[in-house]
Amino acid sequence: MLSPPTIVQPVTPCMSQIRLRGQLPDSRVKVFDDQGTVVAAGVAKETEDLVRLSPGVSLQAGQQLRAEQETADDRSDPPAGAGRLGVAAQPGSVDRVRTLHLAERGVPGRDRLPHRWPRAAG
Q1: Is residue 80 in a domain?
Q2: Model confidence over 17-60: pLDDT tens digits?
Q3: What is the DSSP letter of 118?
Q4: I want to staple 19 with a disulfide (CB 3.0 to 4.6 A). Which of 8, 35, 44, 67 is the partner?
């Protein structure tokens, strides 16, 4: 039995892709909403990969998401309540998070570090 992929946070309504982690390369991955509708699907290239939202789909704040993976021989069980992730509200300008790619700056063993944008004047 395969484990379901993990949806990487944050997930917000402005996103057009969802990052998944823990799937097998070449597995078919799907992300479902709380109604069981497929909101994103694709074939994973890596154990951490982006999956595009399905055409016409937009995420809503508070929506619950879950991910599954499937290979030719096996399929993951739907995740339990703890494996579901809620879509966060749209971040404001103060709460935006950007990712610094420290690997490009020559820091071994660290590929990402959250960083807060400076507060807007006024």
Answers
A1: yes
A2: 999 999 999 999 999 998 999 999 999 999 999 999 999 999 99
A3: P
A4: 8
Query: What residues make up the domain containing 31?
Result: 6-90
> How many angstroms separate the Cα of 42 from the Cα of each of 51, 68, 71?
6, 11, 12
Residue 30: its pLDDT value, please? 96
Q: Distances from the Cα of 119 to the Cαs of 88, 89, 96, 113, in angstroms?
A: 20, 19, 10, 19
CATH number of the domain bearing residue 64: 2.60.40.3580
The verdict on residue 100 lying in a domain is no
Q: Which residue has the tokens 């998401």?
A: 65
Contact 75, 3 (CB under 8 A): no
User: 32 in a domain, yes or no?
Assistant: yes
Count up the domains in the chain and report the number.
1
Nearest Cα neighbor of 52 from 20, 99, 84 is 20
What is the rounded CA–CA span in Å between residue 100 and residue 4? Answer: 28
Q: What are phi and psi of 10, to 5 degrees?
A: -85, 155
